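Morning run. Coffee first, then this:
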Amino acid sequence: MIRKFDFLVIGGGVAGMSYALKVSQSGKGKVALVCKTSLGESNTSKAQGGIASVTNLELDNFEKHIQDTMIAGDYISDPAAVEQVVKGGPEGIADLVKWGVNFDKKEDGEFDLHREGGHSEFRILHHADDTGFEIQRGLMEAVKSNPNITVLENHFAVEIITQHHMGIRVTRRTPDIECFGAYVLNPETGKVDTYLSKITVVATGGTGAVYSSTTNPDIATGDGIAMVYRAKGKVQDMEFVQFHPTALYNPKEKHPAYLITEAMRGYGGILRLPNGKEFMQKYDERLSLAPRDIVARAIDNEMKIHGLDHVCLDVTHKDPEETKKHFPNIYAKCLSIGIDITKDYIPVSPCAHYMCGGIKVDLDGQSSIRRLYALGECSCTGLHGGNRLASNSLIEAVVYADAAARHSLEVVDNYTFNEKVAEWDDEGTLTNEEKVLIAQDMKEVNQIMSTYVGIVRSDLRLHRAWERLDLLFEETEHLFKRVKPTKDICELRNMINVGYLITRHALERKESRGLHYTIDYPKHAYDKTENGKRKTEIC
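And here it is:
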């Protein structure tokens, strides 16, 4: 079946929904919002701490936020992207409020601002300790009440459509690669339908599910990044995987691991060993409020030194009622497994949290493929550089959704639907034995990435990961070519592609920088590449 939409948005988090709401108000055509599960399940909904924006002009300003972002990103961040997001932040917050999102306020009506690691001022807007859930809720209600947006839940994008699907050979050196839509798996029919569009937006979220322990939901398999890479689009900075320092240590719950928000350290939480001894003074003068890469490596090192499965976060010295008020969901979650955070230490350990790299885009959110935009965590805007500053991701998604909407509305009338695109050939069947192998291969990807491409890396480990992923790639591609596509095998393909990209980019960076730390190159190598930045691959 062939379906046509002027704007095809793949992904239903804050980035995808913000964009859909913006373009739907223009009257320039129909909008489809494709979600691989329900509209409510996304990385956005898991974000606890908040969203960063300069709102208290008496104490804060854009220059401070820009500087904090550049420092956290280890000066790899693109200054233009940083300035765009920081200065566009207040308008982005206003959009969210307009769409029905509620942020906590003080009695005087001003926003109740938190401070998190790496921030020099209190600038984190929040809704208790479930800010992402509140943003998702507000946007979902706005989207569902919008008659110009067609929401397609439980639909899985298999590939984006380019000239390749018209029999034209496309390589990474092909000029003017163009996107005409996407092939999308319909769960009710089991068929792959052809969605033609004038503008396509990839907003598919992160990659955490390639690791064995992650704060991301299981759906974070890097689908958009993998699809664009296979379509010969540019992908950048995949070595910068952020491991959140403080996920609740609970071996029974790894996908997703429960996040203990950074706001709890901003509130005064202290990192300790299980015996009560502090350790962050050995690593950074900012102690528990150091940026995430520093804290995650410090915890990883302490766990290895002492043979521990976790360290602890202590808020027992804070007022119990204030703790319950600020962190009701964390309090309830920990209590459900026998931990009273007002009296007991919280066991925490690092786990995969955020992808700073992704599909390379410009200031308008345009990828290297014409008519294709990328937004949110799957994109690489240049904002985060070597390490994302806490709570910058949600505001990035809103600001870039606005930029992409403005640009695409200016050019959409220049495009038409490409009627020459071939429909998907879905011959083949998938046996029960093959389903078992797919599940096992997913676990193997998790093990490879966690063991060899984690917080601390080496060339030996990375080459080992590459060799094992290469074998899985060959086996999976052989299987994919002879069966009907299913969500599971498509996710496995994407996980292998993403694992390969993280490993490859990690091998290419011959220095330790930001989130990428290798024992073979423990120091910066600013002189190795222009301005300390590795060039986007083109081959």
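The first strand starts at residue 2 and ends at 10. Good start to the day.
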